[in-house]
């Protein structure tokens, strides 16, 4: 059986004032009519039953997650008492799925990326599943063909084609974290590098096996959690055990050492994605995702522009944001706060949020 | 007895989005805690009884006027069915006051100027009243010592000192409407020009006498209104008669020809004001009125600035407006609309409001 694990534990301030501590990016409706989290669930809805969906999120976001995905059973929303990066997150979900279905195959995906069209997402995942069918101990990553020399993404170097390599699957030769611009240009020119989408397909049993080998502290923690839950209850046990696990990403903690070992059939593979992908990293990303009008503006909600160029302007359906003579700014209106910041300065919002924190404006954080 | 007539019929869009058709400038709280209209009433409250106060406003603003000045009797708020400039407005109020008190002296003032301190306003009016005491047929204007060569104001040229000229009162030699910058500089250098504050002191009976002489159509209209009200009721009569009066200012229609006649005792006089005066013509005027912080910003409500200079930023107590990297802009947040416009472009808001009208955004007008 195929299961979907949506990693929705992210936090962050890059979408302030829409994103807040209580409502990070994955819960926002940045493109289209649905939040990124709801889109992540919806894009699998026709081919993965709801009962097979799991969301791993921070305990603080339990209510918002249930509100956005009311069809999910309460016990299918796994609540991390604190963030521990992706390895414990995936381990936790894999364990919960594996204990009920030892043959489960798991599609793991971040909650906060934009993927279009949904049909191509499914087609790509099907190719990964085909590979797993033939090589059950494979760990498969979806790779995104790079369209520009991005310095903010992780890259995957493709090696030789997988032996069961239909759909362009290759072995992963190496992982390269955020490169310099020069290196990124070389990657792009070389043609054998793809972006790491953070989307994985593998058997739940294989995930646990790999954690046991490469991250025994996490595996032991999961075992202790299982035992402790029987005597103390799940919630108390999780609160006790989860924070003790090392905070490490699945890429760095498991897949990189596994790929480096270069063993023939139980290694790491990459399947090229045929869908459009964007991680929507900041307000600045919206023009690329939503397009621009003739003046280079990307606007949503009720807005009115005069002599306004290259701006990202967001409002609600009932509040009018009128701009005159503004160039290359981000303007975001929400019910209780409005941001006006230069589009080019990605650090601006971080500075602002730090200042709000310093001033004790808690309710805006 | 002294009466106060507050002319609150103004409309206009220069303070959009705070000002709307239903709530023009005089009803806004631009400086301090009270609206300009309330300030206009309050500055006379200790020395003119409430029963002697009249507000002339547009019928559309009846409710807002009563809300802001609940102590005013309903019949003391005179409702113009349409705007007809200041001559019919003052005529209407003068007639209503005169018919009950033929000896009434009337202080006429616009509702939408900022005047500080209140004590000096009273002192200046007292000097004007002293002149009227000695020369009952005088029409007295308050003049403002110009502080810069303004091109947006009307100027009054001072002639010889009034024969009962204590307090610096002079005869008015001429009126000069909005001059060119060069002329304004000459006025300023010459020293015998003051700004026309639009504040007048004269006997109600004298106002009517002057209207009868210089604007007989208005005087006749007032007489017809009186008769018609007796048979058809005040409201119906006003709706019928008022729109037929010529739309003309008291300055142009009465005081200019009166001053030109240069008769000794029943002419036009100007008393120099000892108070600070600002007509707060646009958002751009706020820094001059409210002052600026170290970065040259004038802000009110909940705001937070980073690298923000020379801006006017207005929000409410509960909505945070955060600006980064903004220079010389006006940012105004209200419950249903937010404006971001260059501070230097006084025509920007007019263009915007025209565009909103064109697009049928009625509820924002």
Topology overview:
The structure is a homodimer of 365-residue chains.
Chain A: E1 2-8, H1 36-42, E2 53-58, H2 62-68, E3 77-80, H3 86-98, E4 105-110, E5 114-116, H4 118-134, E6 139-144, E7 155-161, E8 170-176, H5 181-190, E9 193-203, H6 204-214, H7 216-232, H8 234-241, H9 250-261, E10 268-272, E11 276-278, H10 286-290, E12 298-300, E13 302-306, E14 312-314, E15 320-324, E16 329-333, E17 337-342, H11 348-358
Parallel strand pairs in A: 1-2, 1-4, 2-3, 6-10, 12-14, 13-15, 14-16
Antiparallel strand pairs in A: 4-9, 5-11, 6-9, 7-8, 7-9, 8-10, 16-17
Helix pairs in contact in A: 3-6, 3-9, 6-7, 7-8
Most extensive interface: A-B, 33 and 33 residues
Calculate Rg of chain A over CA atoms.
Answer: 21 Å
Q: At the third CATH level, what is the topology name of the largest domain in chain A?
A: Spore Coat Polysaccharide Biosynthesis Protein SpsA, Chain A
- As a percent range, the share of helical residues of chain A equals 25-40%
CATH superfamily of the largest domain in chain A: Spore Coat Polysaccharide Biosynthesis Protein SpsA, Chain A
Architecture of the largest domain in chain A in CATH? Alpha-Beta Complex
**Biggest sheet of chain A, in brief?**
5 strands, mixed, barrel
Biggest sheet strand line-up of chain A: 6-9-7-8-10
Query: Which class of secondary structure composition applies to the elements of chain A?
Result: alpha/beta
Mean pLDDT of chain A: 94
